[in-house]
Design goal:
about 140 residues; alpha+beta; 2 helices
C-alpha cells in the first residue's frame, strides 16, 4: 500500500511539472525583447531572442547573474548552458509566450493558468499559484 502511494505521488508531481509541447513558433516582428519580471520574492530582467526555429530566453537577477537560460524549439524546452534547470522560469516563459502571441499561441495551456494581457504589461499566474508581473522595457 505504501509503495502504491509513493508511485501515485511521484506521478502527481510529474504531472504538475510537465509543460506542454509547443504547437508552433509564430514569427516575431522584433528579434529581441526585454522585460522586467517581478514576483513576491524577486525582481529580474528577461531577454528573449527570437530566431526562425528557436527562441532563447535568458533571465538574470539585477546584478546580471543568470537565473534561467533556456531555448524553446518545436521539440519543447531545452537547457542552454550550465545553468541548473528552473521549472518556475519555464512555466513563466510558457505563459509569456502565450501572452505575446494571443492570436497564434504556441501552447495550449490548461484552465489552471491565468494570463492577463494589457501590452506592455502582463500578469501571469502559473498553476503552482505564483503571480508574475511582467513589463516590457523599451530598447
Amino acid at each position: 500500500m505504501r509503495k502504491l502511494f509513493v508511485v501515485i505521488f511521484a506521478l502527481f508531481l510529474t504531472f504538475c511539472t510537465t509543460l506542454p509541447k509547443p504547437e508552433r513558433l509564430p514569427l516575431q516582428s522584433q528579434k529581441v525583447r526585454l522585460f522586467k519580471v517581478e514576483n513576491v520574492n524577486e525582481v529580474s530582467l528577461l531577454t528573449v531572442q527570437f530566431e526562425d526555429f528557436q527562441w532563447r530566453w535568458v533571465q538574470t537577477d539585477p546584478l546580471g547573474s543568470p537565473i534561467a537560460r533556456v531555448i524553446l524549439t518545436k521539440k519543447g524546452w531545452q537547457n542552454d548552458g550550465f545553468i541548473m534547470p528552473n521549472m518556475q522560469a519555464k512555466m513563466l516563459f510558457s505563459g509569456l509566450a502565450v501572452a505575446l502571441n494571443s492570436q497564434q499561441p504556441p501552447f495550449k495551456l490548461s484552465s489552471q493558468w491565468d494570463i492577463t494581457s494589457n501590452s506592455p504589461h502582463f500578469e501571469i499566474r502559473t498553476p503552482d499559484g505564483i503571480l508574475w508581473k511582467v513589463d516590457e522595457l523599451e530598447q
